[in-house]
Amino acid sequence: MLQLYDIALRSRLLLGTARYPSPAILAAAVRAARTDVVTVALRRESGGERSGQAFWSLIRELGVRVLPNTAGCHSVKEAVTTARMAREVFGTPWIKLEVIGEDDTLQPDVFGLVEAARILCAEGFQVFPYTTEDLVVAERLLSAGCRVLMPWGAPIGSGRGLNNLYGLTALRAHFPDVPLIIDAGIGVPSHAARALELGFDAVLLNTAVAQARDPVQMAAAFAQAIEAGEAARLAGPIESRDLATPSTPVIGTAFRG
Fold it and tell me: Is 77 a catalytic residue?
């Protein structure tokens, strides 16, 4: 089981809800992913509008937990205001906190992120910060009150996978007891499996499923990959070596000349 704040989840896959070809395909993909949590952008789905109400009804029918996000926010004030509105609309203290600092890579503004996290944690929010793999930033976010961290694998929507294996591995090693969720940049199921093999607790993705040729089949593939990655981690993978090691020992083996 995956424990995020006070909630226990069965699935280690969190799924975004943007850019699907249709609501029906979104619903089918969520079911195929076997996810317990979906992210929702308040800016895209306003609960007071007709389209927002239809979307909200669809999410309720799926029986999944909602993680609202502050996608598209570029300042502390904007992110905090959006988070407060999301709590009113969706009735949850959970918030995926995004404060974007650079438009081409959508890299987080880590200075604003820490400031916004401190404000929201003090107001009782349970914050899921979209951050980088920087160890100092991680420490500041934890000190601000965050109990979960969401480092990026690569820029949002890039499909590049885990760009900085050294940094991500160091992050995992430095914070062994903190739930770490790879967020952004995952492109194919093998990227997700690799994240779980490295010891990350879960993966959040959107574009890799929503923009696939067959989103439903891709969602199912990711679900299988994440289960395989977690099983492999628990099984204890061998360490990589620079030299070959024979799988069939020759010492004590009879040879005929």
Answer: no
